[in-house]
Design a protein that fits this description.
With 333 residues, the protein is of the alpha/beta class. It is 42% helix and 16% strand. It is built from 13 helices and ten strands. It has a five-stranded mixed sheet with strand order 2-1-3-10-4, sandwiched between helices. It has a five-stranded mixed sheet with strand order 7-6-8-5-9. The chain is globular. One of its GO terms (molecular function) is metal ion binding. Homodimer.
Length: 333
């Protein structure tokens, strides 16, 4: 009788524990807030912070259930963010002045690469060294490229235009094939993404857009004003995770970050050396003189003022817009 009574009590206790555990488990699952993050392109080094954080479980630790999507160009990702089809975009944030001029409500809430990394690749042994040297030559680019608003302005700095330079617009998937097959003399891209990829089939050097005074804040995180206002805690967590990830990568874990990208994209046939070189170059473009010594993610008002001027000079926007509308540092600590 006594044993039966004890057994009955144990059964009741176990049942009570199970009843309590159910809601607790459900609550833990509900605590992970879903978030969709759309990248600029197919996997490359600038995505290291996202994929490393996913691989190491840092998003989950922060209470975020993150869906990381590959993109088809910064411009396309920005459109999806503005349409509310994704929560956050990791893109070339220098596109924001023109986008907001055209009605977008997106703004940058964290910067990764703050220095202008737009570049034109040419053969490593090419005599081309400046814009004017491209007369009579051909360039390949895709329509949603961050280069798009600046092509004509950049050509103008060398006394050129599209009648003296053949600018070929192709699908994003055809850009590399066109360049490596030498069907174009130059590739309009970014130095960190393109130089390591070109090394195997067409070793190249970079002619930087900043050489002619173009200021274009590079990669960062963007969301609509509605999302920034309505999901402050989630975005704060996202920024903290990315600060942690990029600090870890910068402090000697580049190879681990490259491995994380490969693990997260096992079917992409990625080259670890290319990824590692892209990550190293991404880190080289982290800072401008105005952001040096500041936390990862910090954006300089002075840099954004210069970016606005470049957009005005390129005819991408009208003068008079307050650059402060393009970004916020509220999540940077």
């Amino acid at each position: 009788m006594k044993m039966t009574s004890i057994a009955a009590r144990l059964v009741r206790a176990a049942a009570a524990t199970a009843l309590l555990a159910g809601p607790l488990a459900a609550g833990a699952a509900a605590a992970e807030e879903k978030m969709t993050i759309r990248l600029d392109f197919s996997p490359w080094g600038v995505h290291a912070g996202m994929h490393l954080a996913k691989e190491k479980g840092w998003f989950k630790d922060a209470g975020l259930d993150v869906d990381i999507q590959d993109g088809r160009g910064s411009g396309n990702t920005l459109q999806l963010v503005n349409a509310g089809q994704v929560d956050v975009g990791q893109i070339q944030v220098g596109l924001l002045p023109q986008a907001r001029e055209n009605g977008s409500t997106a703004k940058a809430f964290a910067g990764i690469d703050k220095r202008t990394d737009l570049a034109v690749l040419v053969d490593q042994d090419s005599p081309v060294a400046k814009v004017a040297d491209f007369k009579g030559k051909s360039l390949v680019v895709f329509a949603a490229s961050p280069w798009a608003p600046f092509i004509d302005y950049w050509l103008k700095q060398g006394g050129l235009d599209r009648t003296t330079v053949n600018v070929m617009f192709v699908d994003p998937s055809a850009v590399w094939g066109t360049y490596t097959a030498k069907r174009a003399d130059g590739l309009m891209s970014t130095e960190p993404s393109a130089i390591p990829v070109a090394a195997a089939n067409r070793p190249s050097k970079a002619i930087l857009a900043e050489d002619v005074g173009i200021t274009f804040p590079s990669y960062g995180l963007v969301a609509t004003e509605k999302t920034i206002e309505g999901r402050k805690e989630a975005l704060k967590k996202l920024v903290e995770v990315q600060q942690k990830a990029w600090t870890y990568i910068r402090d000697g874990h580049v190879d681990e970050a490259a491995d994380a990208i490969i693990k997260q994209r096992p079917n992409a046939k990625l080259d670890k050396k290319v990824l590692a070189d892209q990550i190293k170059l991404t880190i080289d473009f982290f800072d401008t003189p105005n952001t040096k010594g500041k936390p990862i993610g910090y954006q300089s008002p002075e840099d954004w003022a210069k970016a606005a001027k470049s957009a005005v000079d390129a005819g991408a926007i009208k003068p008079g817009t307050d650059p402060a509308t393009y970004f916020t540092n509220e999540f940077i600590q």
